[in-house]
Amino acid sequence: MQQNTITLKLFAVYQETVGLSEKEIVVPSRTTVGSVLDSLIEEYPTLAKWKSLTRFGVNLQFADTDTELQDGDELVFIPPVSGG
Fold this sequence. Notes:
single chain, alpha+beta, Ubiquitin-like (UB roll), five-stranded mixed sheet, 2 helices, globular
């Protein structure tokens, strides 16, 4: 099975929880944005409460959870941010 290498960029609560702002990951071809999020939540269950509030970007374009990732894509998780 073909695999794709993507760059995962994390902000706010995702960055704080994972401890990284950027992470390169290898995923099977046809992997979706939503499945990457689900995998991250499986590894860090405290992120589950942010799932429905998070927006996503792929290569600087907003994306849905069913967007399939390609080799070399940059995936960004954009959680809600409070002003202050």
